[in-house]
Design goal:
Layout lengths: L1 H17 L1 H16 L7 H25 L1 H4 L9 H4 L4 H22 L2 H21 L6 H4 L1 H14 L7 H22 L3 H6 L10 H21 L9 H24 L3 H28 L1
Length: about 290
């Protein structure tokens, strides 16, 4: 029983360190970009793409936590992360992050090509050297960080032999860009005071209710971009296209309902944040299954 408990504690710590659900989602967006090209794909290159992007995403999480360990320790949502709690030293965290990043770049270069690897390196550098410090300066940091989420579909398209610019990967990149901003606002809004006390300036200086309205407008833009995808044959067949359109309309209706029914901004925020997570996962699932089918 004790060994099982220790194993669970280690797994929990590792999940917090690597932020595995987020890394998996980033890898899926890269695969969606690759499969959107519609050309014959090498299974090996797809595995290299997915694994390489996954490793780069975990590396960015670890190295970000090394840089922000002091601030993370001041907030309830992040204080249990291994670096913030002192369970992992900064030197060990840096070594893990560098190893993950190097491994991800090597896998991408060898199996997906030099162009996706270079884009991945640029996204990692931008995340750590531009986005992370800018969070202490301006709420525009959220916009500045969006290229990091928009790049993986472009990496996938290039790994599949495509060239840029092309409408399909750019539409997927726009989809991810529009998803990121309301997602971050909704995730951070309940911790507004703690974020400010920790030195972060990531939320606009508006009321919580106003920020919810702004997030809703971004959601509408996200929905319009999603409805653009079937016109680019993403997915390529009518049935998944219809499912995607229906899902998008359901998301807009549900989000609007939560916004109007929410008596307290924090409650509405949490529901909308869960809705956004679910929506992204289902859209990626439809795109991937539609391409594989």
């Amino acid at each position: 029983m004790l060994s099982r408990t220790l194993t669970m504690l280690h797994l929990t710590a590792m999940t917090r360190l690597l932020r595995l659900p987020l890394a998996l989602m980033v890898a899926l967006t890269a695969l969606a970009g690759a499969l959107s090209r519609g050309a014959p794909r090498s299974g090996l290159s797809l595995w290299a793409l997915g694994c390489g992007v996954f490793l780069l995403a975990t590396a960015s999480s670890v190295l970000n936590q090394v840089l922000e360990r002091g601030s993370d320790a001041l907030m309830r949502r992040t204080c249990q992360r291994p670096l913030a709690s002192g369970a992992l030293t900064p030197r060990a965290g840096t070594a893990i992050g560098v190893a993950l990043g190097s491994g991800g770049l090597a896998v991408l270069a060898a199996g997906a090509g030099p162009a996706p690897a270079l884009l991945g390196l640029a996204a990692l550098a931008w995340y750590l050297l531009a986005y992370t410090p800018l969070k202490r300066v301006s709420s525009l940091a959220v916009l500045a960080g969006t290229p990091c989420g928009a790049v993986p579909p472009l990496m996938g398209w290039l790994a599949a032999g495509g060239t840029l610019p092309a409408p399909q990967p750019l539409a997927l990149a726009l989809f991810m860009l529009l998803w990121q901003v309301p997602h971050y606002w909704l995730l951070a809004l309940p911790d507004r005071m703690e974020l400010k006390a920790a030195g972060f300036r990531v939320l606009p200086e508006v009321s919580d209710q106003r920020l919810l309205v702004m997030s809703h407008r971004w959601l509408l833009g996200l929905a319009l971009t999603t409805l653009l995808l079937p016109t680019l044959d993403l997915p390529a067949t009518p049935v998944p296209q219809g499912i995607l359109i229906g899902l998008t309309l359901a998301m807009v209706i549900t989000a609007s309902w939560h916004l109007r029914r929410g008596l307290f901004a924090v409650n509405a925020t949490r529901k909308l944040c869960r809705l956004l997570h679910l929506y992204l996962g289902l859209v990626l699932l439809i795109l991937l299954l539609g391409a594989l089918g």
